[in-house]
Every structure is written in structure tokens, then in C-alpha cells.
Amino acid sequence: MIVLYTLLSNSPNIRKISMMLKETGLPYTVQRFERPGNGKVPDELMAISPNGTVPAILDEDNGAVIFESGAILYYLAEKTGKFLSPDLKAKGEAMKWLIFESANFGPTMGELYHYILRTSEEIADVHMQRYKTKIAKFCAVLDHQLDGRDYLCGEYSIADIALYPWTGILEDMADVKLSDYSWLSNWARRISQRPSAEATVSF
Questions:
Q1: Span 2-82: which CATH code?
Q2: Model-level pTM?
Q3: Strands across the sheet with 28-33, in order?
Q4: Cβ atoms within 10 Å of 139's Cβ, excluding its own
């Protein structure tokens, strides 16, 4: 049994893991943490995720505790043998796009969200535009990669699962229209038709 640790949220990072769990069919339960009013990270969460972030999982089969969404996707792929090719070259292809999301797309969206919450600060506008420009660039990179492909690496993989949840908030957060990127838009539409695309955490 997988225990999924989360906050009361269905953020893109949480949705990635929800999608993966549904895709693999692994049984799981949800353990939700609540932040107190002072914003302090609960000690119980810190014991599982030293950075105080979610998602994190516990694999009750072997006691493994994994935090960071990219690491969780990789772990679940290795555990089930799904959505990550055993072939070294193909695995490398999927991993580089998984790391692209973890190192670039996700953090930039996170920084943008930080400044959206502080729109009354004049400096926020400068930073927000910088991050919006970066997101548009990342979308162009993905669009180019998807040219002629159904999925980022040809076959559906954890790289697609990692990046897809961000597409639903691109326009609202980053003023980026998915429809401006035809290959990326078709890719997102294709994934949206998978049953797992509707996966959310039930509390």
C-alpha cells in the first residue's frame, strides 16, 4: 500500500502523483497535513519530507519514504515497470524531460505564483513578466519536441505525467495560451482523454 502525504490541495505537483497512482493501479491511501495559522510546517511532515513540502509517499511494502514529485514518479515507475522504458537510451530520454520539468517548468511556475500573491508590490510586475516569458519559452521547447510525436518521448511516460498538470493553469497564471502551440495543445488534449487526467486526491 502507498501512503500519499499531502496538504489540502490538488496542485499540479499533487495531481502528477494522483495520475501516476491511477495509471499504475497501485492501491493507496491519503494522509493530509494541515499547516497551522502561523505557517509552520508540522513536525510530522518534516519527519517525512525534510524540506517541508508535499507530495511525499511511504511505500508500506518496504518502508521507503520518497519526497519530491519527480523522484516519486521515478520510484513508482520502477516499482511497477510502467511508463519508463527499461532500455537505457529510452529511459534517458524520459528522464531528461522529467528533470526539465523538475528543474525549470515547475520551479518557474512556483516563483510566478509567489509574485502573483504580491501584486501590490511594484517589483512584482517586473519579476512576473520575467517568469511569464520563461514559461512561454519552455512551452515553445515542448512544442518543438512534440512535433510529429504523440508523447514527449514517443511512448507515454512519467515525463508526460510530470508536465501535463501544468497545462490547465498556463493561461490563468502565465498568460500563455496553450492554443498558440499546436503540437503541445494536441498533446495536452490527447492526455486529457486518459482516465487518469481526472485523477484528484480525495480527502
A1: 3.40.30.10
A2: 0.92
A3: 28-33, 2-7, 56-59, 64-67
A4: 22
